[in-house]
Amino acid sequence: MMDNLRSAANNVVLKIILALIIVSFVLTGVGNYLIGGSDDYAAKVDGQTINRAQLEQAVQSERSRLQQQLGDQFSALAGNEGYMKELRKQVLSRLIDDALLDQYSRKLGLGVSDDQVKDAIRTMPYFLTDGKFDNAKYLDVIARMGTTPDNYAELIRQQLMRQQMIQAYTATGFTLPAEVESMAALTMQQRNVRLATINVKGLVAAQVVTDEELKAYYQQNQNSFIAPEQVKIAYIEMDAAAIQDKVTVSDGDIEAYYDQHKSDFTQPERKNYSVIQLKTEDDAKAVLDELKNGADFAKVAQEKSTDIISRKNGGEMGWLEPSTTPDEVSGANLTEKGQLSGVVKSSVGYLVVRLNDITPEVVKPLSEVKNDIATLVKQQKALDEYYALQQKVSEAATSDNESLASAEEAAGSKAVTTDWFTRDTVPAALNFRPLVQAVFDGALIGSDGAPGSNSDVINVEGDRAFVVRVISHKPEAVKPLDQVKDQVTAQVKRQKAEQQARMQGDKLLVALQSGKGEEAMKAAGLTFGNEQTLTRISEDRQLADSVFALPQPKDNKPVYGMSADSQDNVVLIQLDSVKSGHMDDKDLQAFSSQMLTGSTGIIFDSLMSNLRAEAKIKLGSGASDMQ
């Protein structure tokens, strides 16, 4: 498989596609981990340094992501030293992979154009009005997303790059028809079963619980009865969007911005090339002679080019800007439409290049971009006022740490006071991770329930900021037994009922498997229900997994098993028969595509394995915490 990968990668156009993946890592922040030169490094990848600060930043980012995703569960995991070492190890491994991909990209000399990004954004349905791109709607939507046009464009760039890479690799893969049919039959297999359910809920009422059992369960499960930490806070909010509504922009402001940023409104010169790739110099010379004698370039490319991607399009590579044109193509120095190069030596063989067309550099007139500039200038003015307000409020909150009175005066608005809330019940207006962390990390909380100190300015997404003050605090505590007695009683009864149901199920299963099930089932007041058909994708996954784990019946004798349903009831299973699955041609084709897509992941894994095997990777003292 790696041989196929290397063969596919050995052409000019695929170089460009591969570049898209690598550039996306750099533009979305991963590149920040791959620069820097501290001697206290975490790893060196073929001489490229990943220093300790970069690793710590990446680990903190991953911690924050997991905290947001798992909440209190992650707090428990974070207390496990072994888990945190493994987390650091995984983060460093990812940074090393990023460095390897970055180096591989540079080795291939890859690049990417901005045109695809612009076209993709302009066709997205949520930016359209009456079927046409609406720039005002676009700016409004991404502002509410808490991002900027540049950052959003890079996000779209990353998505397009991944799509192109997947398409490039998938085109080189295949699955055997027999393999697909066999897997489809197994996936769509059906099993006919009868079920008998021991209802746990029906057994709960009959359970008797002693005070000793309640106390024992409470002592063993105190973490289940914790009253979470609670706070009341006062806060002042600063919002750049609200400031922007009051900002005015003059024509002079717009003209000054246009003159200072004219390059932002300039489309650089672009050239459309076609290329024919050959293995030897003699082959390239022969092709060049054909073309000079009037042969059709596209036809020759389709018949003779070794570039498996561009030859499908008659050798055409599409529109490229100077910054995204491979060196061997730009080095041909073609300047006129229809001009042919000589034989060009490259790292992948020999090329013959034709310049199909040229679009000159174009500067958009002020009249065309005036509205866009007005929006940008208005945003910038609002941000300037917003940051000035932050500084003013910050100084006031710091100089008068006994209350928010001075900060209120500086902000020109009164502080808002909340009711009690926990980490899990943060008011929607305050539910931002930096703010929640600041409130609950302890630094703002006073001792013995007294009011705490003022925070500094806390910036959150969407160009908003807060200054907060914890005015009341209740620490986390275990609720006394008398407050949770009813809850404990219900849980103990449920636990005893589940144990009784499992014991009863075990006995009945033994009787069924030994041929004495009819009497045992009758004595228990249970019968198997009507036959039903289960598949691997049945709604009750736990039950389906148990059914498909049973051996197939032989000699028309049923097979018995035991499982649990989604309500944790004990379920006895009688498996009567198994039927092979079937897909029609349309579904089989879709299934084959899914299998092929799955194999794409194997190709990427192979690529990374190969890059790691060939690289010199050295761990430094910055990685000592995981060694």
Give a structural overview.
The protein is α+β, with helices and mostly antiparallel strands and 627 residues long. The protein has four domains: 2-176 and 588-626, Orthogonal Bundle (Triger factor/SurA peptide-binding fold), CATH 1.10.4030; 189-226 and 481-579, no CATH class; 229-242 and 378-475, Chitinase A, domain 3; 269-360, Chitinase A, domain 3, CATH 3.10.50. It has a four-stranded antiparallel β-sheet with strand order 18-5-20-19. It is flat. Residues 1-38 have low confidence and may be disordered. The chain crosses the membrane at residues 12-35. Belongs to the PpiD chaperone family. InterPro entries: PPIase_dom_sf, PPIase_PpiC, PPIase_PpiC_CS, PpiD_chaperone, Trigger_fact/SurA_dom_sf. GO terms for molecular function: peptidyl-prolyl cis-trans isomerase activity. This is Periplasmic chaperone PpiD.
Could you provide a short overview of the structure?
Keywords: Cell inner membrane, Cell membrane, Chaperone, Isomerase, Membrane, Rotamase, Transmembrane, Transmembrane helix. The protein is an alpha+beta fold.
